[in-house]
Amino acid sequence: MSNENPDQGDQNKDYSKRIPLEALSRVSEKINEKAGGLENDKCPVCGSAHNTVLETEYSIPVGQTEPLVGIGPHVPSYATACLNCGYLRFFSKLILDRIIASEAAPREEGGDENG
Ligand SMILES: [Zn+2]
Question: For residue 101, what is the enclosing H or E element?
């Protein structure tokens, strides 16, 4: 009998950042909204509207000319994967988080509103 054990010391290290479920659904809703509806959020490769927000935050390195020491300049990103062909799309976490936060926050009275 083979008895493979996935728990093997150092290979257990997880450098990924998990995205909380609640945040995942907010990101998914926002992307669908920006696409003009769930059915319009289609894969540019195969045209399928079946995609999912991945549970891990990604960091895309920007113009690295030096060897990576620690964490260099990077763009923290959300990723979605097409469930039909696997095509990956990346969205700026900073921008999406800002949009979601600004639209979720209650409007303050006496701001720069007209009237
Ligand atoms: Zn696809």
Answer: helix 93-104
* Span from the CA of 77 to the centroid of ligand 1 (angstroms): 19
Q: What angle do CA 39, 41, 42 make, to 5 degrees?
A: 95
CA 63 to chain centroid: 21
Taking the centre of ligand 1 as the mean of its atom positions, its distance from the CA of residue 83, in whole angstroms, is 7
Q: Which two tokens stand for residue 48?
A: 């399928």
Name the pTM for this structure: 0.72
The predicted-structure confidence for 46-75, as pLDDT tens digits, reads as follows 999 999 999 999 988 887 666 555 556 788
User: How far away, in angstroms, is 109 Cα from ligand 1 center?
Assistant: 45
- Whole-angstrom Cα distance, residue 55 to residue 49? 19
